Amino acid sequence: QVHVAESGGGLVQPGGSLKLSCAASGAGLDSYAIGWFRQAPGKEREGVACLVIVDGTRAYGDSMRGRFTISRDGAKNTIHLQMTNLKPEDTAVYYCAAIYSLSAYVCVHRGENHLDVWGQGTPVTVSP
Question: Could you report the per-residue pLDDT of 93-124, keeping only the tens digit for each?
Fold first, then answer.
């Protein structure tokens, strides 16, 4: 069974940077893409970025490319989300998820599937 766990959220000033980490583990992980999603208060959840475990391909949500970078920690199944030049509108709960797909694009854009595995989320607040 696949498991994911996020870490690294917190309070950051506008213009600052923050790095989130997602530790993914479990049998069958090669059938998944690991993605970062966020949900701001009163808004729908949106895809930030995804990385396919088996081949490392990546995709980003609309308007996410440039300030957000998804990466993998070497041979480990730890997926990072580096966020730079943060803005107050980036304030949200950020979730890591193992999405049952071998397409990074599908991972970012499709809705939930019963085979997906979600973390509990880590809050990010961008405020002076």
Answer: 999 999 999 999 999 998 778 899 999 999 99
Write the pLDDT tens digit of every residue in 34-68.
Answer: 999 999 999 999 999 999 999 999 999 988 889 99
**Beta strand pairing status for 46-52 and 33-39?**
antiparallel
Contact partners, residue 63, CB within 8 Å, separation at least 6: none
Token pair belonging to 111: 């809705």
CA distances (Å), 80 to each of 43, 114, 115, 120, 128, in order?
Answer: 24, 24, 22, 16, 25
CB burial string 79-105: b at 16+ within 10 A, e below: bbbebeebeeebbbbbbbbbbbbbebb
Phi, psi of 90 (to 5 degrees): -85, -5
Q: Count CB atoms within 10 A of the CB of residue 41.
A: 7
**Maximum C-alpha span of the chain:** 43
The predicted-structure confidence for 2-43, as pLDDT tens digits, reads as follows 999 999 999 999 999 999 999 999 999 999 999 999 999 999
